[in-house]
């Protein structure tokens, strides 16, 4: 509702009143971004002495605010224009169940297009960020607290201060691993810094994160981060996530993440740790004839050549590149799945140096290197009629020269232990 007069009388004013304005009406525009809002706005905005020396006042109360059914509380917003200083003073407070969650205050300077604000964050849930990160991160828990300042030009904001993460947890999409942390994050001139930032996996093992996220005043984001895992869970995937390479990987080493956010490069050099179990299918989910990838050199030989020519075409998903040098130790178990349908599987322990090149945006998944088996067994099946289990002896090896499904395996076996 609008009331009042516009005149040269300094006592005349124009008032805009808002009563129980339902903000869910804007969900038509926000739902595509993953946000559904609820709440009601009450309050007023008033301008006096418009023609000579206008003064602006407002007081708005957003009550019962919720974001995606998560209660946010009440948000009180007030502002006042100071004509002499040509500044708009703004104050905002967020209360939830009588607890102050956030307080912000400061000034906008329209002529210089600049600002100066201080923000005191007591407890802000990070769950609100999940819709924006849903392609890569899910099941976000925890909150942040701290003090920051926001200054500089409106088109080049300068954010400084520190935020402490509290009991934050999240699941990483491509690796299906869940991590938690409670360390501080530093802001300097709108860039984000991690200083010996400790990340825990589900087994309470630690990886240390150091480095910078350059934001160019939140216009062009670029990463320069170093992660140092120590017996840390880096993969927890199943065949459904990636039928070319999956399993449970614990590793130590160094990983470096660099580049712009839309073209990241991850370079990692890692050593596998105990309880690692890697699955390497030599066939796709399609039915594969035994003759396509298993052949005996001759009837009297105990050497089997295993080679698969069938590949799996992956649809591009994201534009980032992974270059992984993986040193596999005997403590890690590798399962080479020749034919899942009939249970044709090699289970082995051994030594190897593998190099993986992955770029989902280009449909790239290459594997290079050699894996030497120190011990293991091979369950050989033939059309579901013959089932024999062989022990694998030393000297056996599996080599990759690009496509993961183009592996060439030279397997030395002893006599079958018993028919199944």
- Percentage of helical residues? under 10%
What percent of residues are in strands? over 45%
Give the tally of β-strands: 28
Total of helices:
2
User: Element order, helices and strands?
Assistant: EEHEEEEEEHEEEEEEEEEEEEEEEEEEEE
Instruction: Report the uncertain regions.
Output: 285-316
Structural class comes to mainly beta
Task: Kindly report how far apart the N and C termini lie.
Answer: 84 Å
**Gyration radius, in Å:** 30 Å
Summarize model confidence as the mean pLDDT.
83
Outline: elongated
User: Which sheet architecture does the biggest sheet show?
Assistant: 6 strands, mixed, barrel
Strand neighbour order, sheet with most strands: 17-18-22-24-23-19
Topology overview:
Blueprint: E1 2-4, E2 13-22, H1 27-30, E3 37-48, E4 55-67, E5 70-82, E6 87-96, E7 99-109, E8 114-125, H2 130-133, E9 137-153, E10 156-172, E11 178-181, E12 184-188, E13 191-200, E14 206-214, E15 222-229, E16 232-236, E17 246-260, E18 264-272, E19 277-281, E20 294-296, E21 303-307, E22 320-328, E23 333-339, E24 344-359, E25 364-382, E26 386-392, E27 396-402, E28 408-412
Parallel strand pairs: 18-22, 19-23
Antiparallel strand pairs: 1-2, 2-3, 3-4, 4-5, 5-6, 6-7, 7-8, 8-9, 9-10, 10-11, 10-12, 12-13, 13-14, 14-15, 15-17, 16-17, 17-18, 17-19, 20-21, 21-28, 22-24, 23-24, 24-25, 25-26, 25-27, 27-28
């Amino acid at each position: 509702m609008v009331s009042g007069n516009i005149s040269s009388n300094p006592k005349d004013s124009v008032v805009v009143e808002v009563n129980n304005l339902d903000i869910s009406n804007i969900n038509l525009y926000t739902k595509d971004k993953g946000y559904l809002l609820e709440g009601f706005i009450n309050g007023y905005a008033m301008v006096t002495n418009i023609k000579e020396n206008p003064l602006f006042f407002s007081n708005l109360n957003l009550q019962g605010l919720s974001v995606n059914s998560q209660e946010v509380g009440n948000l009180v917003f007030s502002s006042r224009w100071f004509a002499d200083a040509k500044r708009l003073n703004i104050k905002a407070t967020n209360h939830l169940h009588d607890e102050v969650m956030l307080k912000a205050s400061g000034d906008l300077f329209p002529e210089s297009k600049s600002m100066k604000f201080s923000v005191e964050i007591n407890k802000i849930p990070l769950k609100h960020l999940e819709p924006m990160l849903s392609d890569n991160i899910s099941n976000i828990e925890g909150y942040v607290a701290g003090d920051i300042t926001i200054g500089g030009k409106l088109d080049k904001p300068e954010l400084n201060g520190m935020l402490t993460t509290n009991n934050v947890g999240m699941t990483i999409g491509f690796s299906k691993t869940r991590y938690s942390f409670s360390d501080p994050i530093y802001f300097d001139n709108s860039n984000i810094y991690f200083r010996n930032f400790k990340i825990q996996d589900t087994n309470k093992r630690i990886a240390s994160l150091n480095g910078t996220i350059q934001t160019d005043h939140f216009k062009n984001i670029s990463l320069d981060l170093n992660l140092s895992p120590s017996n840390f869970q880096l993969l927890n995937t199943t065949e459904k996530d990636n039928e070319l390479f999956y399993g449970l990987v614990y590793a130590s080493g160094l990983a470096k993440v660099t580049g712009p956010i839309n073209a990241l490069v991850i370079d990692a050099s890692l050593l596998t740790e105990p309880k690692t179990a890697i699955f390497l299918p030599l066939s796709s989910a399609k039915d594969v004839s035994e003759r396509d990838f298993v052949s005996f050199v001759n009837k009297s030989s105990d050497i089997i050549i295993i080679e698969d020519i069938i590949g799996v075409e992956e649809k591009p998903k994201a534009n980032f590149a992974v270059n992984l040098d993986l040193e596999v130790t005997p403590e890690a178990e590798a399962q080479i799945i020749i034919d899942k349908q009939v249970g044709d599987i090699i289970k082995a322990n051994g030594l190897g140096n593998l190099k993986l090149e992955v770029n989902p945006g280009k449909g790239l998944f290459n594997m290079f290197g050699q894996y030497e088996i120190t011990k293991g067994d091979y369950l050989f099946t033939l059309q579901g009629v013959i089932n024999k289990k062989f022990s694998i002896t030393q000297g056996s090896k599996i080599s990759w020269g690009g496509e993961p499904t183009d592996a060439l395996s030279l397997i030395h076996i002893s006599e079958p232990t018993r028919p199944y």
